[in-house]
C-alpha cells in the first residue's frame, strides 16, 4: 500500500549515463532532463560530485536518474536512484 506523507514536492528529473559510442570506439556521456531544468541539475551534480561519482563507477559505463527540486535553477541535485553499471562488451 502506498502512503503519501505531506504534499507532493515538485522535482525535476534527468537521465545521466556513460554509454558506448555507436561506432564502438569509446564511450559517450549522455544527459537529458524531462525539462531543461533537469538537465541543469545534472550539470550541477557533475560540478559538485564528480569525484564521488568517479569513486563509484570509475571509467565503467553506467546509467542513473538525477533529481533536483523544481525551482527553475539547480539547487541541490542528487541521485534519485542507484547507479546501474552496464556490462562491458
Task: Fill in the keyword field for this structure.
five-stranded antiparallel β-sheet; alpha+beta; elongated; single chain
Binned strand content: 25-35%
* Poorly predicted runs: none
As a percent range, the share of helical residues equals 10-25%
How many domains, in number, for the residues? 1
Distance between the termini: 40 Å
Number of strands: 5
Tell me the Rg in angstroms: 15 Å
Mean pLDDT: 86
Number of helices: 1
Characterize the main sheet: 5 strands, antiparallel
Order of helices and strands: EEHEEE
Instruction: Name the shape in a single word.
Output: elongated
Oligomer: single chain
Give the helix/strand class.
alpha+beta
Describe how the helices and strands are arranged.
Blueprint: E1 11-20, E2 27-33, H1 36-57, E3 62-69, E4 78-79, E5 84-85
Antiparallel strand pairs: 1-2, 1-3, 3-4, 3-5
How would you briefly describe this protein structure?
By secondary structure, the protein is α+β, with helices and mostly antiparallel strands.
Mind explaining what this structure looks like?
With 89 residues, this protein is α+β, with helices and mostly antiparallel strands. The chain has one domain. The chain is 25% helix and 33% strand. It is built from one helix and five strands. Strands 1, 2, 3, 4 and 5 form a five-stranded antiparallel beta sheet that branches. Strand 3 (62-69) and strand 4 form a beta hairpin.
Amino acid at each position: 500500500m502506498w502512503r503519501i506523507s505531506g504534499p507532493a514536492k515538485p522535482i525535476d528529473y534527468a537521465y545521466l549515463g556513460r554509454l558506448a559510442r555507436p561506432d564502438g570506439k569509446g564511450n559517450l556521456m549522455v544527459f537529458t532532463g524531462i525539462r531543461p531544468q533537469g538537465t541543469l541539475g545534472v550539470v550541477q551534480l557533475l560540478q559538485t560530485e564528480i569525484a564521488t561519482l568517479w569513486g563509484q563507477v570509475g571509467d565503467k559505463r553506467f546509467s542513473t536518474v538525477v533529481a533536483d527540486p523544481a525551482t527553475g535553477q539547480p539547487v541541490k541535485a542528487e541521485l534519485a536512484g542507484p547507479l546501474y553499471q552496464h556490462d562491458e562488451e
